[in-house]
Amino acid sequence: MRNDRRRVNSAGDKQDPLESVEWCRVIDHPEVGDALVVVTEPAMHVIRLKPKPNTTLQAVGERLYMGTEESKREIVQEILGFARIRDLSSRAFTELPVVIQKMIEDDPDVFVNQFFNRAGNLSLKMHAFELLQGVGNKKAMEMVAKRGRSGWENFEQLNAECGINGPELLAARFVMEINDRGLQPRLIDLLLRKDE
């Protein structure tokens, strides 16, 4: 395991985006001894990890510590690097949105307060809510009206008032952005990767 998680690129010294990552969730662990494919919290990088010897099969969605404190690492031996999305198994593709939705549901304050309660216009013709699958301009304007000045307290209130599944829609958007790095604007970057 590299203790100094830094990379140098042609533009000079750049901080490794995994340097401060402590937690991740399993999206695929095909067999005992195979590399784990995980999504990091909160920045949602899809990476591969080498498990420690004699590690049992890890369940999809299992939360693992991968930080720099070796004594806290029960499963992870070392970080192998970023996973190529096109090389993920069909199981990993299927589980990725489910695991991301669970991450969103487990930390609702970030997503309700930072996105749903603050989202505004991206242009004269488009609201940020329209980045979510199935939300058009009319639905976005209805959501803005229902949000009012006070906003929503939690996903339950948001979902009931707007007739949507907020965590599911955000997870679907994040998966689209993970699969297509050219997709703009990127909610992952705006909400989760601000410091990279």
Question: Could you describe the 3D structure shown?
Answer:
The chain has 6 helices and 7 strands. The chain has 2 domains: 6-83, Nucleic acid-binding proteins (OB fold (Dihydrolipoamide Acetyltransferase, E2P), Beta Barrel); 107-191, AF1531-like domain (DNA polymerase, domain 1), CATH 1.10.150. It has a 5-stranded antiparallel beta sheet. It is 33% helix and 18% strand. By secondary structure, the chain is an alpha+beta fold. It has helices at 90-106, 108-116, 137-147, 155-162, 166-179, 187-191, and strands at residues 6-9, 12-15, 23-28, 36-41, 46-51, 63-65, 76-82. Strand 4 (36-41) and strand 5 (46-51) form a beta hairpin. The chain is elongated.
Could you provide a short overview of the structure?
The protein is of the alpha+beta class. It has helices at 90-106, 108-116, 137-147, 155-162, 166-179, 187-191; strands spanning 6-9, 12-15, 23-28, 36-41, 46-51, 63-65, 76-82. The protein is built from 6 helices and 7 strands, in the order E-E-E-E-E-E-E-H-H-H-H-H-H.
